[in-house]
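Structure record:
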Amino acid sequence: MAASNGEKSLIVSFGEMLIDFVPTVSGVSLAEAPGFIKAPGGAPANVAIAVSRLGGRAAFVGKLGDDEFGHMLAGILKQNGVSAEGINFDTGARTALAFVTLRSDGEREFMFYRNPSADMLLRPDELNLDLIKSAKVFHYGSISLIVEPCRSAHLKAMEVAKEAGALLSYDPNLRLPLWPSKEEAKKQILSIWDKAEVIKVSDDELMFLTGSDNVDDETALSLWHDNLKLLLVTLGEKGCKYYTKSFHGSVDPFHVNTVDTTGAGDSFVGALLSNIVDDSTILEEEARLREVLRFANACGAITTTKKGAIPALPTVSEVQTLLIGN
């Protein structure tokens, strides 16, 4: 559904929101960490806030615990201009927690507390269908596919969004410790692969899903399907690759002082979606798409310069400063 009266179109992000506990110092194990800082996280929520911070219109659909952390997270969404109309609260389960180890190179390792957490218990009958139907872009990951009833809620939300004319955007956001096995993760991530029109994977996810040791064009294009309009492979500090029906190429990275890579991919996705939500013809014009991806690379780079995802997500003015300087 398109926006009217000059209002920006809505991007709805579906899935999990949780608390990351991040060590106060980098490069130590969880056991060695002297303390932890709590940081709101969860990839779909990060994307929604990234969109809002860049001036877009975003809503989040998911379930939180009816506890202090759950209400804190809902409050953070609202403070960041994201609609919380799609949030449900579960009185019987807690908000998910994750302890995150920051290695000395800024990469992360995770230990999750979800047994079960509230996000896993979202039911199809709890979905705010009117909100989902109003989305011009509907974005999701794969963590919501791991268990029922959330898996059925995810599939229902996708179906409703698609029927209402939304562009479907998918970032698998692989977190292997949450899956029963590597085989199940691959099977379920690929089970909805052919529904999405925009898919973003990291280089590691590309290798996991294809079984290849290469991050080349042939490997990436093995994931192509007929409904796709854009396939993106993010390469961390090496930028990104893009593939459409008509053209493909790569966009160079921005070199920054990386502190924490948490949320960089979500920032990249939010930047892309906020730029194409009101003009999807960008996906058909390579020069314009490259400009958008350069902007998205800048957003991802800036996000790595601070600890935590949401505090590090940039504004348009911060991105423009980096673009002008490069």
